[in-house]
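Render this sequence as a predicted structure.
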Amino acid sequence: MIREKPVAAFPGWPVIGAIFALLIIGTLLTIAAGATGRIFGMVVGLILIVVGLLALPGFFLVNPNEAKVVQLLGRYVGTARQPGLWWMNPLCYPKTSVSQRVRNFESSKLKVNDHDGNPIDIAAVVVWNVIDTAEALFQVDDYENFVRVQSEAAIRNLATSYPYDSQSESRVVLRRSSGEITEKLRTEIQERLAKAGIEVIEARISHLAYAQEIAGAMLRRQQASAIIAAKALLVEGAVGIVEAALDELAKKHVVDLDNERKVAMVSNLLVVLCSDQHPQPVVNTGTLYQ
């Protein structure tokens, strides 16, 4: 594994001054030696000029939120992260720029089967940045494409590991358990991208729906399930109310009810409490036994 390390570079502005001084001194020395016919002085002056010119390609600029990865004859030398003008050995080439900015992308809408086998459409937004420039450049072929492909693979795997929805409140599902699903997705993408020197800051589902071919049927099933759950809750509450009413009537001796009258009262109360419409009162002028 190639790990990032700092590069040994010199501040650029002092080196610019030194190179200009070499060029000026070399030029003056060459002119003076040529006027007096001193061959040695001319050679020294030309050497100074050549050294100054050869040193010029050693300058490179590091912008804010950017890193320069430096190589020497195919060998990784180091990474410069400090913004500014820098100089190092002119033979160190290339100096590849790697952005340190936080980036994000939204995956395409993927059609996969959830844990229960239902086809769903899912997409996610992934926020990431490069934390190790050496791994990003040398461990994978194209780290931006690597992020995209591996993120979509993680999204597919997540979608097949959990159901879209469930009536059980304790079960982790894609539609309802946003916190657990988000953390699971971020962790899985991070595990896949760690070898490329990438940090996943956030990963969140941006689109989730049943596939078009079953969307209508699943919507009707959800509606039916919701109605059944609501009815079950309503009946449970109604039974509790009727039980409490009978207990209070018996406790306070408001009226003495035999079993048949209790059955009638329970029936009437359940009709009133469980009806979808407002009940219409009926006045009974006779008795229960007529």
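Summary. The chain has three domains: 10-65+82-93, 103-210, 215-274. Residues 10-65+82-93 form one domain.
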